[in-house]
Amino acid sequence: MSPKPKILVVDDDRSICKLMGSILEMESYPFRVAMTAEQARRAMEEERFDILVSDIYLGDDSGLHLLERMKCVNADAEVVIMTAHGSMETAVHAVHNGAFDYISKPFVVDEMLRILHRIEEKFQLSRSKTVGPELAENLPKTEIIGATPKMVDIYKKVAKTARIEAPVLVIGESGSGKELIARALHENSARTKAPFVVINCGALPETLLESELYGHERGSFTGATGSRKGLFESAAGGTVFLDEISETSLSFQVKLLRVIQEREIRRVGSNDTIQVDVRLIAATNRDLREMVRTGQFREDLFHRLNVFTIALPPLRDRREDIPLLSSFFLKLFTEKNGKTVRLAEDALEAMKQYSWPGNVRELKNTLERAMTFNDTGVVQLEELEFGEAEDSALIEPSSAPSLDAAPYRASASRARSFPGGEASLDAMEREHIIKILKQTGGNKKKAAEILGIERRTLYNKARRLGIDFRSI
After folding, report:
1. Partners of 200 in the β-ladder
2. Which end of the chain is more exposed for a tag (fewer CB within 10 A), N or C?
């Protein structure tokens, strides 16, 4: 069993020092108390500490300076900042500059212990043995496919992060497999026998989203004819996966922050709090740091979610996995339809050349479409439809030299999705959505189904990417 981390407590309030001493003694943590910054610096010179718990304002100095000093003497140390409510902005700044977390005074003992236990879990994780590539075969009940070094790193992160209780933020483009990662984290955790609940934050209006997550009381809004449990209650002991967390409002984010900090909720229309026991996994395809910078996402929530991050690579960055993925999906469709089909060599080569702006989801849909209409048992190059067939043109040999003069049809603008194109990710996503909308004759419901997103998410993306439905 790993030794308990040694903790340095710094506060000029004697009652806080006494309380912290009692807490740490009760939990068998080795610790030392300092009431001034000078005493704290001297303690750091005399002993090695793993955790610093410091008030943000000290009579002779600042907790921010002690944070910097602690990181200098022990780069692996973690820092918890204690703050009064009036200095919350400074505490968030401290987290941004390397503190593990902050806690408001007066604090609840259990809340302090939860933070310390999370730090302990992080230390244990860093000391754990590295998991080898064979882990890919040992992850139960998942469909994560890939053998490239980038995916092996993902398997390692999933295996390590699954065992801890801290929130996880999964980042990746649309269709890259974020929900599969969340499911793998759940299935490989101690919560595997409890519910795994998924909610797409971008698919519901805010009032309905709150009702879905927190539940509601009778009469709390029009149509609320009875009390109803929310997903946080229904998922007791399990995992809640919040997809498209970036699509939530700032007011909703405040309430979610409370769930993470206090582990309690209030049903819509009620003043009573209910304790909840869930692990939270959030996902986004947007840059949350940039959203924080522009005021679209709360910085304190970002740092709460960003304890552990798993960044999924887009399919174009792991092209070597395309044959493996293709084989997996063809086998899946064979079992489902009782129809054996394989890919012609030039068809597979074309798939490796294409950049897949819709990622694994688009690859799966492309193969399923080709297999459905194939009667020969071999999918040929001309049977693959990358996007729509309208305004189609041959890909020039310079874009895909291995294809030579094969009758490979793709839209002229889609050619920019192949290696060498300079279009940004947003531009490619915009182009892809417009093509699907044209393909469906402007039917937004069908377009959303093909894209694998909710209709509300389609509207949000259209607004963000400047897509005018009337012009399609």
Report:
1. 243
2. N
Nearest to 356 by CA among 145, 149, 175, 181: 175
pTM exceeding 0.85: no
Does the domain at 7-127 match CATH 3.40.50.1000? Answer given as no
Task: Name the stretches of the chain with pLDDT < 50.
Answer: 129-141, 388-424
pLDDT at 87: 58
Query: Does residue 265 come out as left (phi exceeding 0), alpha (psi in the -120 to 50 range) or beta?
Result: beta
The answer to whether the CB of 362 falls within 8 A of the CB of 368 is no
In CATH terms, 135-313 corresponds, of 3.40.50.300, 3.40.1350.10, 3.40.50.460, 2.60.40.3230, to: 3.40.50.300
- Token reading at 130: 């590295």
Torsion-angle region of residue 195: left (phi > 0), alpha (psi -120 to 50) or beta? beta
Per the structure block, which two tokens stand in for 437? 């909308």
**CA pair distance 20, 34, nearest whole angstrom:** 11
- Residue 280, Cβ density class (10 Å: 0-12 exposed, 13-18 middle, ≥19 buried): buried
| H/E segment holding residue 78 | strand 78-83
